[in-house]
């Protein structure tokens, strides 16, 4: 089977699978290029309320497929630029995103996981940011995102050494949000994303921008809150002891 990004949408959750088992799900040039348009397609689907990024089998992603570097050159794009474009598209996805990690999450895999809003990992997974092993300058935006997650000291440890860390340290430093026992990842991800899909998309969309430090759209979100019926529905559902049915959708694609 050719390396690919496959995806499904079910019960409000889009699942994108990095599928290249012959190379431990390493990302080829074609896969890096395919991710931004796929995310644009999924963002345009109003039924998608959350997105999960994971790897096929027992590995999340071992990084970039070094053997495909020639394809990068043929496409006219530097490898780093393609990876950063994919990372930024993932970070900009308008709904909550979650990386479900098993096994190796290294190099470009860690770059993609860090671009997700949340990261759940199975015990035994390994994380590493490895440009120092190849003499590569890690992108400034990726470095800043890593440092925001882990703090400067851990970011330096990972970037200076290229060493891998386990789930215990990844949890402790903030690189992952939950660690699940072997065999428990899929069920926990399914349960948690069903919660995400049931919550107010208005609250989530505004929070995502505010947490990212964006302050130029405060008035926009105030207008959206006034236009929305989500708050009234949430209060009514609470008083009536029922599950709320939130219906907010953005008035426009935004900026």
Automatic annotation (TrEMBL):
InterPro entries, per the entry: ClpP/crotonase-like_dom_sf, Enoyl-CoA_hydra/iso, Enoyl-CoA_hydra_C, Enoyl-CoA_Hydratase/Isomerase
Cited Pfam families: ECH_1
Family: Belongs to the enoyl-CoA hydratase/isomerase family.
UniProt protein name: Enoyl-CoA hydratase
């Amino acid at each position: 089977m050719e390396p690919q990004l496959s995806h499904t949408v079910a019960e409000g959750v889009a699942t994108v699978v990095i599928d290249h088992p012959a190379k431990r799900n390493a990302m080829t040039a074609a896969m890096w290029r395919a991710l931004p348009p796929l995310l644009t397609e999924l963002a345009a689907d109003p039924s998608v309320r959350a997105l999960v990024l994971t790897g096929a089998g027992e590995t999340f992603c071992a990084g970039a497929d070094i053997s495909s570097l020639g394809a990068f050159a043929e496409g006219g794009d530097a490898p780093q630029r393609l990876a950063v474009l994919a990372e930024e598209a993932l970070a900009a996805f308008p709904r909550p995103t979650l990386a479900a990690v098993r096994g190796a999450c290294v190099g470009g895999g860690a770059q993609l996981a860090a671009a997700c809003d949340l990261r759940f990992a199975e015990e035994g997974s390994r994380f590493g940011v490895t440009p120092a092993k190849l003499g590569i300058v890690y992108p400034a935006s990726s470095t800043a995102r890593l440092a925001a997650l882990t703090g400067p000291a851990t970011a330096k440890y990972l970037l200076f050494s290229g060493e891998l860390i386990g789930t215990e340290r990844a949890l402790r430093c903030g690189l992952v949000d939950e660690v699940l026992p072997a065999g428990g990842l899929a069920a926990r991800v399914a349960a948690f994303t069903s919660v995400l899909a049931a919550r107010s998309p208005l609250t989530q969309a505004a929070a995502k921008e505010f947490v990212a430090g964006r302050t130029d759209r405060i008035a926009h979100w105030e207008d959206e809150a006034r236009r929305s019926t989500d708050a009234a529905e949430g209060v009514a559902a609470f008083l009536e002891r029922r599950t709320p049915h939130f219906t907010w959708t953005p008035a426009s694609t935004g900026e």
